[in-house]
Amino acid sequence: MIHIEECTLIDAPIQRCFDLSRSVEVHPLSNVHSGEQALALGGVTSGLVGLSEEVTWRAKHFWCVAEPHE
Questions:
Q1: Is residue 47 part of a domain?
Q2: Helix (H, G, I), strand (E, B) or coil at 66
Q3: C-alpha span between 48 and 18 (Å, rounded)
Q4: CA–CA separation, 41 vs 21, rounded Å?
Q5: Long-range pairs of 58-63 with CB within 8 A, sequence gap ≥ 24
């Protein structure tokens, strides 16, 4: 079994890191090549994802479009 571990040191308060990790606007910036978009399918499409909230993403990976599942 292969085990990969990555450690990133960030010089910022933990609350800022946590909020950025659940930001709908920030997430696509880390995957610009895939053209990720939050879809309006009853979930969150902007702001910070809260407890029990969901985001449905549409993106292009591996040269094909990943469509949301109903």
A1: yes
A2: strand
A3: 10
A4: 21
A5: 59/31, 59/34, 59/35, 60/34, 60/35, 61/34
Domain residue limits at 32: 14-66
Q: Would residue 18 count as lying in a domain? A: yes
pLDDT of residue 52 exceeding 90, the answer is: yes
pLDDT tens-place string over residues 3-31: 999 998 999 999 999 999 999 999 888 77
The pLDDT assigned to 54 comes to 92
What would the two tokens of residue 44 be?
């969150």
Within-domain flag for 45: yes
Q: How confident is the model at residue 58 (pLDDT cuts 50, 70, 90)?
A: confident
Task: Report the domain count for the chain.
Answer: 1
Tokens of 51: 């407890």
Residue 6 lies in a domain: no
